[in-house]
Design brief:
The complex is a heterodimer of chains A (501) and B (337). With 501 residues, chain A is α/β, with parallel strands linked by helices. Chain A folds into 3 domains: 239 residues, Rossmann fold (3-Layer(aba) Sandwich); 176 residues, 3-Layer(aba) Sandwich (Rossmann fold); 73 residues, no CATH class. Chain A contains 17 helices and 22 strands. The longest helix of chain A is centred in the middle third of the chain and has 16 residues. Chain A is globular, with a radius of gyration of 24 Å. The N and C termini of chain A lie far apart (53 Å). Chain B has a domain of 207 residues. Helices cover 73% and strands 3% of the residues of chain B. Chain B has 14 helices and 4 strands. Chain B has a two-stranded antiparallel ribbon. A two-stranded antiparallel sheet of chain B has the order 2-3. In chain B, helix 2 packs parallel to helix 13, helix 3 packs parallel to helix 8 and helix 4 packs across helix 11. The chains are: A alpha/beta (501), B mainly alpha (337). At the A-B interface, helix 2, strand 8 and helix 17 of A face helix 8, helix 9 and helix 10 of B.
C-alpha cells in the first residue's frame, strides 16, 4: 500500500509548520524522513495520521484520496504509528498493551488466555521473551518501546510509521528492531522511519526525504547522497560541521581565586556517593557518564532540587545551604533540567512569558517585571539566540525542541547567573540547533560564566569542557584536565572499566 | 560517536512474595477494604453480641441495594479518571418522575424504561460536556446535579406516594433461605454487579475504560475509541442512577424531591474505600461492592450504639482519609520501583 501526500500545508498560530510538502511512501521500502528540529517531520506524520488537520493539500492512500480523523481512523486503514514517547498504558499488562483493541474474542467476551497467547507470539517476533501478564511498568523504557512496536505489528499494518523509535534503545535493541523492520519490508509493508542518528538512517533506509523549515528539500535514494551533502541539505547552508566551533578545551582558566562553586563531599544516600567538584569563573566543567551514573542526580543536589544528606556547597568561597531552588536562585545559580517538557517549558504560555519567568521568580512573585525591562529581555534574547519563529507571542509548545531549549537558556541568562547548570541541553534536537547551543555555551563561558555541562554525547562534552568529571555507578571515577586533549575513547574506557566501583 | 544509552542492568532479585505482588498492586486496596470489613464485623460481634447474624447481613444488602447500583456506575466513571456528582439528584429525579407518572396511571412497564432513559439522558449530557466541550467532570456533573435537583421540584414539591404493586414488590417480596432473605432489589443490584464486572473485565469497552484512566493520550494514539468510551461511562452511571431511582422508590415507597441529597458523596466514598484510584485506571467493581458494605456496617454499628447519625459521616470521613493516604503510598511505591 502506498501513500502519496501532495502540497501539504499545516499552520499553527504564528508558525507555518508545513508549506506545500510533497511526500511519497511506496510499499516495500523503508523511507527515512530527515530534517532539523522544527523542519516539520513530526507535523508531517501527524498530518498523515489525522492528528492535525491539514490546511491544504491532498493525501492518497492506495490510490484513493483519504482524510483521517485521528489515529484510530488511520489505523483502521492500515497505518500504524509508533511515537517517540512511549504511548502505552502503564496501568495495564504488557499483553494487554499489545493487544488492546485487537483482543481475541471468545464466547464470553475477551478470551484472555488466547489473547495473551497471541501477545506472546507477537512479542517473540521482536525477540522479546517477556511474560505478557507482567505489568508494563515493570519494564525498562527500551523494552516498552519495543512493546509499542509489536503493537503496531498486531494491527497488521500496511504502512508503519516510526517516529524516532530508537532514541531510547541500545545497540542490540536497535538491531532487533531493524531485523523486524527488514522483515516487514519484505512483506511489502511501507515503513516511514524518523531518527536523529544518521548511522542508523544509512544502515536501514532505502530512500530519504529531507525537509527544511517546513518545506520539501528533496527525495533521494540512500546511495545517491553522501553524508556531508545530506547534512548540508538538512542545514541548508554550506556544510556547517559541528567541529567548526573548534575545541574550546585549550582555553586557560584562572584557578587561583575562589571558585564560583565548590562542592565538598556532596552526596545523598541511594542517589550518589559523596563527591567533590569545583567550577571556576569562565570554566565549563563537563559531567560524563552513562544514564543513571549520577550526572543528573549531582546537578539536582547542587541546585537544591533534591536535598543532600551529606557534604557542603560553597559559592564564591562562602559556605551556603542550597537546600531549595530558591536559595540557588538567590545565589545566581541556574539549572536547566533534562526534562524539557515537564520541568522546563510551560507549554501554554508564550515565548516571551516563558522567557521572563526566571527574572520574575528572582524578583519575587509580587513585584511584576516592568514592561520595558520585559521587552528589553525578550528583544535581546530573541535576536542573540536566534529563536525561530521570531514571534515572542507564539505559544512555546508550538516551537521545535531546539528553539524551546533556546528560550529556556534565555530564561536563565536573563537572571544574570554566575553558574549555569545545563542537563542535556541538546537532547533530541538537530545538528544545527546543537551547534548553536554549543557555541552559545562556549561564548558565555568566555565572558566569565561558570558552566556545568551534562550530555550523553561525549564528543560534545569533550569539545566544550575545560575539565571533565567522569561518573560511573554514582561515583566520580576521574577528573580529567581537558587541556591534554582528552579523547572520547579515553572517557569511554573510564566509563566501561569494571571493578573499581 | 553517537549517544550512549543505558545498558540494561540485571533486575534485582526479588522474593517470591514480592514477585507474586507485582502486577497485583491494584488488588491491594481492595484487599485492605475486605480486611477492614472483616475487622469491623468481628469487632461488632465482640462488642454487641448478636451482630454477625443472617438477618443483619441480609439487611446490609437490602438497605443498600440502591447504593450498590450507584457505586457500580460510579466505578466506571472514576476508572476513567472522572467523577459524577449528579447521581444522587438523578436518582431522586427519576424516582419523582416515576412516582408522578404512576400516580397519573401510567403502567410500571412503561415507567421503568423511562426512568432508565432519563438517567441515560443525564449521563449523555454530562459525558458530551466532559468530552466534547472539555468541561471538568466535576463541573459538568455538578451542573447535571443542579439540573436534576431542580427538575425534581418542577415535578412536585411534595412527596408522592407510590402504590404500584409491581414497584413496591421489588422491596416487599422477601425470598427467605433459612434465616437469610433477599429482596428483588438485592437480586437486581447483584446481577448488575456481576454484569458490570464482566463488562469491565471481558469487553473491549471495559478495557478501554482502564486504558483511558491509565493514560488518555496514549489510549487515543493507540487508536482506541476514547471519545465514545468517555461519553459512555457517564451514560452507564446515569442508567445506574435510573435503576437506583427505581430501587430507592421501592425502598421508600415514595418519590420525594429531597431524596438522595449527599448520596453522590456516599457513593464516591464507597468506591474509593473499595480501592478505586480517584486518578483513574486502577480499581475493581467488586471493591466498590465491599466499599458499600463497609459503609453499611458503619451505619448499622452507629445505630446499634445509639449514637447520633452524624457519626456515620465522621467515621466514613476518617476511613476515606485513611484510604486515600494508603492509595497514595501504594502508588508512590509502585512508581519508585
Amino acid at each position: 500500500m502506498s501513500v502519496v501526500m501532495r502540497g501539504i500545508s499545516v499552520e499553527f498560530p504564528g508558525v507555518k509548520a508545513l508549506d506545500g510538502v510533497d511526500f511519497a511512501l511506496r510499499s516495500g521500502e523503508i523511507h527515512s524522513l530527515l530534517g532539523e528540529n522544527g523542519a516539520g517531520k513530526s507535523t508531517l506524520i501527524k498530518a498523515l495520521t489525522g492528528v492535525y488537520p491539514i490546511d491544504s493539500g491532498r493525501i492518497e492512500v492506495a490510490g484513493r484520496e483519504r482524510t483521517f480523523t485521528g489515529t484510530a481512523d488511520a489505523q483502521s486503514a492500515g497505518i500504524a504509528t509508533v511515537y517517540q514517547e512511549v504511548n502505552l498504558c502503564a496501568n495495564l499488562s504488557v499483553g494487554e498493551n499489545v493487544m488492546l483493541g485487537n483482543e481475541v474474542s471468545g464466547r464470553f467476551g475477551i478470551d484472555w488466555r488466547a489473547t495473551y497467547a497471541r501477545a506472546r507470539t507477537f512479542l517473540s517476533q521482536l525477540g522479546l521473551d517477556i511474560d505478557p501478564r507482567s505489568p508494563l511498568s515493570s519494564h525498562s523504557l527500551a523494552i516498552q518501546q519495543l512493546i509499542a512496536i509489536s503493537r503496531a505489528v498486531v494491527v497488521d499494518c500496511r504502512v508503519l510509521v516510526l517516529d524516532e523509535p530508537t532514541s531510547s534503545l541500545d545497540r542490540s535493541e536497535v538491531d532487533r528492531l531493524f531485523a523486524v523492520m527488514r522483515r516487514l519490508r519484505d512483506q511489502n509493508v511501507a515503513i516511514l522511519f524518523v531518527s536523529h542518528f544518521l548511522d542508523q538512517i544509512y544502515e536501514i533506509s532505502d530512500r530519504m526525504t529531507i525537509l527544511r523549515n517546513g518545506r520539501l528539500e528533496g527525495e533521494y535514494l540512500v546511495g545517491e547522497l553522501e553524508r556531508p551533502q545530506l547534512i548540508a541539505k538538512m542545514l541548508g547552508r554550506e556544510l556547517v560541521e559541528l567541529d567548526s566551533i573548534g575545541r574550546s578545551s585549550e582555553r586557560v582558566i584562572e584557578r587561583t581565586g575562589d571558585p564560583v562553586l565548590r562542592v565538598l563531599a556532596l552526596g545523598k544516600r541511594g542517589s550518589i556517593e559523596p563527591m567533590d567538584l569545583d567550577v571556576y569563573p569562565g570554566e565549563v566543567v563537563g559531567l560524563a557518564g552513562l544514564l543513571g551514573s549520577g550526572r543528573t542526580e549531582l546537578a539536582r543536589l547542587i541546585y537544591g532540587a533534591d536535598r543532600a544528606d551529606h557534604g557542603t556547597v560553597q559559592v564564591h568561597g562562602s559556605t551556603t545551604r542550597l537546600s531549595t531552588p530558591r536559595h540557588s536562585v538567590e545565589h545566581r545559580i541556574a539549572f536547566s533540567s533534562e526534562d524539557r517538557r515537564a520541568e522546563g517549558i510551560i507549554g501554554d504560555l508564550t515565548v516571551a512569558e516563558n522567557m521572563v519567568l526566571g527574572v520574575q521568580a528572582k524578583r519575587g512573585w509580587f513585584r511584576r517585571v516592568p514592561r520595558a525591562r520585559r521587552d528589553q529581555i525578550v528583544d535581546q534574547y530573541m535576536d542573540s539566540l536566534q529563536i525561530r519563529p521570531r514571534n515572542p507571542q507564539a505559544l512555546i509548545r508550538n516551537l521545535s525542541g531546539g528553539n524551546q531549549q533556546k528560550v529556556l537558556l534565555a530564561r536563565w541568562l536573563a537572571t544574570d547567573p554566575v553558574l549555569l547548570i545545563l542537563d542535556e541541553p541538546t537532547r533530541g534536537i538537530d545538528v544545527g540547533a546543537k551547534a548553536e547551543i554549543q557555541r552559545l555555551v562556549s561564548e558565555l563561558a568566555e565572558r566569565g560564566l561558570g558552566v556545568i555541562f551534562i550530555s550523553s554525547e561525549l564528543d560534545e562534552v569533550v569539545r566544550l569542557s575545560q575539565r571533565i568529571a567522569v561518573l560511573r555507578d554514582r561515583h566520580k571515577v576521574a577528573d580529567l584536565d581537558n587541556r591534554q586533549n582528552v579523547d572520547v575513547d579515553d572517557i569511554v574506557a573510564l566509563i566501561a572499566k569494571e571493578g573499581a566501583a | 560517536m553517537t549517544a550512549l544509552t543505558e545498558t540494561e542492568r540485571p533486575a534485582p532479585t526479588i522474593s517470591r512474595w514480592r514477585h507474586f505482588l507485582v502486577g497485583k498492586v491494584a488488588w491491594m486496596p481492595v484487599l485492605a477494604a475486605v480486611v477492614i470489613l472483616v475487622i469491623m464485623l468481628v469487632a461488632g460481634q465482640a462488642y454487641f453480641g448478636r451482630f454477625v447474624t443472617p438477618r443483619i447481613l441480609s439487611s446490609l444488602f437490602v438497605d443498600n441495594a440502591y447504593l450498590i447500583v450507584l457505586a457500580a456506575g460510579m466505578t466506571f466513571v472514576i476508572l476513567t479518571g472522572g467523577i459524577d456528582l449528579s447521581v444522587g439528584a438523578v436518582m431522586a429525579f427519576t424516582g419523582m418522575l416515576a412516582a408522578k407518572l404512576m400516580s397519573t396511571g401510567v403502567p410500571a412497564p412503561v415507567v421503568i424504561p423511562l426512568m432508565l432513559i432519563a438517567g441515560a439522558a443525564f449521563g449523555l449530557i454530562i459525558g458530551v460536556m466532559v468530552h466534547y466541550f472539555d468541561v471538568q467532570p466535576f463541573i459538568a456533573s455538578l451542573a447535571g446535579m443542579f439540573l436534576a435537583r431542580g427538575l425534581c421540584f418542577v415535578v412536585s414539591l411534595e412527596a408522592i406516594q407510590v402504590k404500584n404493586p409491581l414497584v413496591l414488590g421489588l422491596q416487599s417480596v422477601k425470598i427467605n433461605m433459612g434465616d437469610w432473605y433477599v429482596t428483588p432489589t438485592v437480586i437486581i443490584a447483584l446481577l448488575l454487579v456481576v454484569g458490570a464486572t464482566w463488562v469491565l473485565g471481558y469487553t473491549r469497552f471495559g478495557r478501554t475504560v482502564y486504558a483511558v484512566g491509565g493514560n488518555e493520550q496514549s489510549a487515543r494514539l493507540m487508536g482506541l475509541h476514547v471519545a465514545r468510551t468517555k461519553v459512555l461511562v457517564y451514560v452507564v452511571s446515569g442508567v445506574c442512577a435510573g435503576i437506583a431511582g427505581l430501587l430507592f422508590t421501592a425502598y421508600t415507597a415514595a418519590g420525594y424531591s429531597l431524596n438522595g441529597i449527599g448520596t453522590e458523596l456516599d457513593t464516591i466514598a464507597a468506591v474509593v474505600i473499595g480501592g478505586t484510584l480517584l486518578t483513574g485506571g486502577s480499581g475493581y467493581l467488586i471493591g466498590s461492592l465491599v466499599g458499600v458494605l463497609v459503609y453499611g456496617v458503619i451505619k448499622v454499628s452507629i445505630t446499634f450504639l445509639g449514637a447520633d447519625a452524624s457519626w456515620t459521616r465522621i467515621t466514613i470521613g476518617i476511613l476515606l482519609l485513611a484510604f486515600v493516604v494508603v492509595q497514595r503510598v501504594i502508588v508512590a511505591r509502585a512508581n519508585r520501583r
